[in-house]
Amino acid sequence: MPTCFRALTGPDPNQKFPGFAMYRVFQFQVAAALSVVTLLCCGCGEAPLETLADPDAKPAATPVAASLPEAPAPSPAAFVKDTDCRSCHEPVFAEWLGSDHERAMDHATSATVLGDFNNATFSHFDEHWRFFKEGEAFKVGYRAGSAEERIYTVEYTFGVKPLQQYLVPFPGGRYQCVPVAWDADEKRWFHLYPDAPLREGDPLHWTGRLQNWNYMCAECHSTDLRKGFDNKTNTFNTTFSDINVGCQACHGPGSTHVEWARLPVTTPKDAYTAMGLVVDYKSNKGAYQVDQCARCHARRAPAVAEDEPARSFHDNFLLSVLSDGLYHPDGQILDEVYEYGSFTQSKMYHAGVRCTDCHNPHSAKLLVPGNDLCVRCHQDVPQPQFPTLKPGVFDAKSHHFHEPGTPGAQCVNCHMAERTYMGIDERRDHSFRVPRPDLSVALGTPNACNQCHADKDAHWAADAVKSWYDEKTPEQSKHFATTIAAGRRNQPEAETELAALAAEVNAPAIIRATALELLGNYPGGAASEALLKGLKDGSPVVRARAVDGMDRLPMEARGEVIGPLALDPMASVRTSVPLILAPVKAGLPVKTREALATVEAEYVALQEATGDQPEAHLNLALLHTAAGDLVAAEAAYKTAIARDPQFIPARVNLANLYNGQGRNGEAEHLLNEALGLAPNEGELHYSMALLLAEMNRLDEAVVYMKRATELLPGRARVFYNYGLLLQHRNDRAGAEAALKQAHGIDPANGGVLDALVIFYVQEERWEQAKPYAEKLLALDPNNPELQRSVAAILAR
Question: For residue 319, which of 548, 520, 552, 605 has the smallest C-alpha distance?
Answer without folding.
Answer: 548
